[in-house]
Structures are given as C-alpha cells and as structure tokens.
Amino acid sequence: MGAATAWQLARRGVSVALVEAFDAGHVHGSSHGTSRIVRRAYADPFWVRLTGRAYDAWAEAEDDTGTALLRTTGGLDTGARRDPVGLARLMAAEGVPHELLTAGEAEARWPGMRFDGSVLFHPEGAVLDADAAVAAWVRRVRELRGTVLERTRVLAVEPDGGGARVVTDGPELAAGSVVVAAGPWLPELPLGLPLPPLTVTQQQVFHFRQLDPAAVWPTFVHKGDLQLFGLPSGADGGPRPAVKVAQHDGGRPTTASTRDGVVDPASRERVTAFVRAWLPGLEPEPIAQGSCLYTVTPDEDFVLDRVGPVVVASPCSGHGAKFAALIGRMAAALALGEAEPEPRFALSRVGSLV
C-alpha cells in the first residue's frame, strides 16, 4: 500500500519519500509473493463495486509501469457457507459476468477438482503478482525523482506546525502530510490515533504440484467447515506448475516483531487433508510452504482515513492485496486533501468496534 501511494503521488509531481524498514519487496509482512487472488465475488455489494474500481486502478498501474501485474484465470466460489447461489444473485444485481454450475458441470470443466453442491464461476477472477507490483511502483517512484529510503525504520510521527516530522533511525524527515501504511507494524507505532482493535495473525500457505502440468485451473474460495482458498502458485511454488492452497481462518495470533515464521503443523495437516479430499489433481504433499501476516479489524473492513497531517492506510484485514492499486489512489487523494474518507474505512467508526 505504501509503494502504491508513493507511486500515485510521484506521478502527479508531488515530492515524496518512501520509507521502508527492510528492503523494498521484503518477505516479513503481508505484501510479498507472486500469487494473490483478485476476485469480484463478495457477499456485500459495497465490496463488489469496490473490486470494479480496483480493476480500473490495476489497468492504470500496468499502463504506467509497463509491467503485467494481473493474469486472468477466472474464479470459483464453493461450499455451503460460501453460498454460491446467493453470490450469483448479488453478482447478477451488480452486472458482474458469472455462471452458476452444478458440481458435475464444474468437475467436467476442471478435471482434477471435486465439488459438492452449486459452484459459482466468474471469468474476471485473476492472479496478482504482488512482488512485481511493489518492484514496479518503487522503480517508478525513483524514475519520477522520488526518494526511496530502504532499511530505515520509522520510530515516531509527530505533528510539526502544519505538517509532520518523521523520526527514523536514519534521517529525520519533514512533510506536509504523512501516509502510514505499516500493516502489521501499525499497532506498534506510537501514533496517538484512535485506532480500532487490531489482531495480527500468522497465516500459513502451502504449494502442491500439479499432476498434469498442462492443467489450467481458476482461483477458488471454499467455505465449509474451514475457509480455504487456492490459486496458481507462480514462482512461489517452484519451476513446475503448482497450486497454492491456504486456510483463511484459524491464523495464530502474533505481532510483527515477534512472529517466528514457523509453519503450524496443524494448519499443514488441515490443508493437506482438504487437498486429498477435494483436489485429486494435485500431489497430496506440499512441495513448498511459507507464512505471511494478516492485520484484522473486528468488522474486517479497512482503515483508510486522515487525522491532521497523518493518513492511515492499513490494515486490510486479510483481503487487501487485490485493492492495493486502488488504495494507493485513495490514500494519495487523502494526503493531498482532495477527498473525504470512505465512511466504511473511517476512524470515526472505532467506538462501535471496541
């Protein structure tokens, strides 16, 4: 989110400094990897409409950076608790192309996948290369004469006259406005702002090799007893075609500073059991695994608001990657005083979340 915001500001001729505690594109937070789901299917029309705006923002990012960031695969929604029939009604109301399939029809179309009950397919589903997006935005910030400070840790953001002073373990910066896109580090920053309760969890992801390297599957979201998702692994799964499968719920509470990165064996077993039962087109043991962090609000909406000179542009509650290009645009508009916050993301809702 920080790289997207810096790119939006730099391309408008604004003097901008992007401050990163690690190397740009690091693996310690929530924004790394070559495979993230981009989808239109949500159970709330607000989010369906926002995904439409996000697709427009991704097209803008690809055009400006000259980098392919999204790969269209289509997307599936399955499982009784996911309610494919209800999702189909909502997609129809919002004018989003989709098909509602029987389990048999879906299995015939995508051999190697098993289904139970109705299956929603929407052709606009895609995979985002998050690593490529961050790299492209950072490159463009530099090309547009912005400053990128890597391995520089922010210690405090303090009001200073009409702007703010950013205290780091390196140079001290002064700015008219500061965008804080700290993700899981947000609860640890002394901002003095009325943030909602934030829960940071470590999530595990697993990559399973395809038995048929030529098979082309859509992304999927499944919600039954567990909530899981899957998508093509990209480079994260190694040189041969693989599928990334992970459990969306059930992450282990942690903090950005204390997470250990050790994969939970219970999570591995739950995901592997799902693959054995429902994805016979994959080898049943993972060939690679990893972890990332979620930072979640009680209502699972985002935080994107401005207080004085400070814009808070995180957390994104475990579903923000698909919106990164749009969040960069919205955060830049807040920083420049050109827009009011989206009420769903405003800090004014904090009292109702405590």
Kindly report the CATH topology of the largest domain: D-Amino Acid Oxidase, Chain A, domain 2
CATH architecture of the largest domain: 2-Layer Sandwich
Structural class, judged by helices and strands? alpha+beta
* Number of structurally distinct domains: 2
How much is the average pLDDT? Answer: 96
Helix content: 25-40%
From the alpha carbons, calculate the radius of gyration and give it in angstroms.
20 Å
**For the record, what CATH class of the largest domain applies?**
Alpha Beta
Count of runs of 4 or more consecutive helical residues: 8
Percent of residues in beta strands?
Answer: 25-35%
Name the CATH superfamily assignment of the largest domain.
D-Amino Acid Oxidase, subunit A, domain 2
Shape: globular
Distance between the termini: 25 Å
Task: Count the E strands.
Answer: 20
Unreliable spans: none
Give the H and E element order: HEEHEEHEHEEHEEEEEEEEEEHEEEHH
Structure commentary:
The chain is α+β, with helices and mostly antiparallel strands and 354 residues long. It has two domains: 2-30 and 131-195 and 302-340, 3-Layer(bba) Sandwich (FAD/NAD(P)-binding domain); 75-123 and 199-296, D-Amino Acid Oxidase, Chain A, domain 2, CATH 3.30.9. 26% of the residues lie in helices and 26% in strands. Strands 4, 5, 6, 13, 14, 15, 16, 17 and 18 form a nine-stranded mixed sheet that branches. The protein has a three-stranded antiparallel sheet with strand order 2-7-3, covered by helices on one side. Strands 9-10-11 form a three-stranded antiparallel sheet, with no helix packed on it. α1 runs parallel beside α5 (130-143), α1 packs across α7 and α2 (45-65) packs across α7. The longest helix is centred in the first third of the chain and has 21 residues, at 45-65.
